[in-house]
Amino acid sequence: MAGNRRHCQHGTVDAAIDGKQAVTEYESVRRVCHPALGAISEVRLRPLTGRTHQLRRHLLSLGHPI
């Protein structure tokens, strides 16, 4: 999660996608400084539902697009 403004170690995103429930659990595994990219984070994601683009949309809602 580069450009981390609201750094959370773990949590759950429960945000509807196309009017259907979508739930993702997330956990920050580690943060490192990349020479070309700056601060980046490795995250563990667990989609509890299977919506199209769910992980992308949920990370975007947290301010950390992929």
Describe this structure in words.
The chain is mainly beta and 66 residues long. Helix content is 12%, strand content 41%. The chain contains 1 helix and 3 strands, in the order E-E-E-H. It has one helix at residues 54-61, and strands at residues 10-14, 23-34, 38-47. The protein has a 3-stranded antiparallel β-sheet with strand order 1-2-3, with helices on one face. A hairpin with a 3-residue loop joins strand 2 and strand 3. The protein is elongated and about 40 Å long. Mean pLDDT is 88; it is low at 1-5.
Sheet-strand content, in percent, reads: 35-45%
Distance between the termini: 8 Å
The sequence of SSEs as H and E is EEEH
> Helical proportion?
10-25%
- Strand arrangement, largest sheet? 1-2-3
Describe the structure using short key phrases.
mainly beta, 1 helix, 66 residues, disordered N terminus
List the helices and strands and how they pair.
Elements: E1 10-14, E2 23-34, E3 38-47, H1 54-61
Antiparallel strand pairs: 1-2, 2-3
Q: In a nutshell, what does this entry contain?
A:
Helices cover 12% and strands 41% of the residues.
